[in-house]
């Protein structure tokens, strides 16, 4: 019986280690999303400032500016798509984290019940 308890302890330790890695990874992705969102906001501000400051020149160079704006817009859309992918990854990691926590709690309960049962049998 002690060997099973030790195996369960090792399994719980391994799961806790994996859980910690998942949480760290999830937090890193959240940070990446924040950085990308800040970049999009800054890029939008820069484009708006450029348009505001050079509005009289826009009519002269409208084709070039339009091409630039289309590229910026596509770039922003690509970043937003990346953010959606990262958010999906976070949801997957949250699912795994929940499952691992449930597994760890169930193992603790199983070990506690086993120990209680052994003590009960010894007393009887």
Write the topology of this structure.
Blueprint: H1 2-53, H2 55-58, H3 62-123
Helix pairs in contact: 1-3
What does this structure look like?
This protein is mostly helical. It is rod-shaped. The protein has helices at residues 2-53, 55-58, 62-123. The protein has a single domain, classed as Helix Hairpins. 95% of the residues lie in helices and 0% in strands.
Task: Please provide a brief summary of the model.
The protein is an all-alpha fold and 124 residues long. It has a single domain, classed as Helix Hairpins (Orthogonal Bundle), CATH 1.10.287.
List keywords for this structure.
about 120 residues; mainly alpha; Helix Hairpins; 3 helices; disordered N terminus
Kindly give the count of domains.
1
Mean of pLDDT: 72
Structural class: mainly alpha
Q: Please bin the fraction of helical residues.
A: over 70%
| CATH class value | Mainly Alpha
Count of helices?
3
Q: What is the strand tally?
A: 0
Specify the overall morphology: rod-shaped
CATH topology: Helix Hairpins
End-to-end gap: 18 Å
- What order do the helices and strands follow? HHH
* Gyration radius from CA atoms, angstroms: 27 Å
CATH architecture verdict = Orthogonal Bundle
The largest sheet, given as strand count, sense and whether it forms a barrel, is: none
Are there runs of 5+ residues with pLDDT below 50, and where? 1-6
Q: What amount of the residues lies in strands?
A: under 5%
């Amino acid at each position: 019986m002690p060997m099973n308890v030790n195996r369960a302890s090792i399994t719980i330790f391994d799961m806790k280690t994996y859980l910690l890695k998942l949480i760290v990874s999830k937090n890193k992705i959240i940070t990446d999303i924040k950085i990308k969102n800040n970049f999009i906001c800054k890029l939008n501000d820069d484009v708006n400032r450029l348009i505001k400051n050079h509005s009289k020149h826009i009519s002269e160079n409208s084709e070039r500016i339009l091409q630039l704006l289309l590229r910026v817009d596509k770039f922003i859309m690509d970043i937003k798509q990346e953010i959606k992918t990262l958010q999906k990854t976070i949801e997957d990691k949250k699912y795994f984290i929940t499952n691992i926590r449930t597994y760890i709690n169930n193992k603790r309960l199983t070990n506690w019940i086993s120990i209680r049962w052994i003590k009960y049998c010894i007393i009887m």
